[in-house]
Design brief:
With about 160 residues, the protein is mainly α. It is built from three helices and no strands.
Length: about 160
Amino acid sequence: MAADGHLGGPGAGRGDETAIAQAIQKVTASTQALVRDEIELAKLEVQQKLVSFGRGAAIGAAAGFFLLGAGLVLLHGVAWLLWYLIFPDGQFFWGFFLEALILVVFAATAGLAAAKLVGKAKAPVPEQALAAARDTRAAIRQETSLAREQVREVIVKPEEQR
């Protein structure tokens, strides 16, 4: 051991230390860039799912509106039917029932479309971003263990044994 506390004499290993420091800086910068990219991916994924959910909710609201209208028209038609049974002057109620049937068909169509969109949206969890984060974490662990071995080799082994 040299007087300055380094293995192999004065100045030995300075190039290795610089290379290790540069490698650590490079890994840190790459990790930060990966984390930023994964956050952006998560934002995009959640945004897409929320848009799909919003569309499904809007179509579901339309289905509810059609069903409400059908119920009102049906009640109105029943009122006309009762009037006809008690006072049989004309058959005005068939128009109300036909309108109610058309509104029920609209409600069923809109309800099926809403269910399809809401089912497609699922929970707004960024599954792709989470999978990418798990892969990144595994890669960082592997790189960290490799860097640790390289640092250990530089620190422990004298320069002439490397």
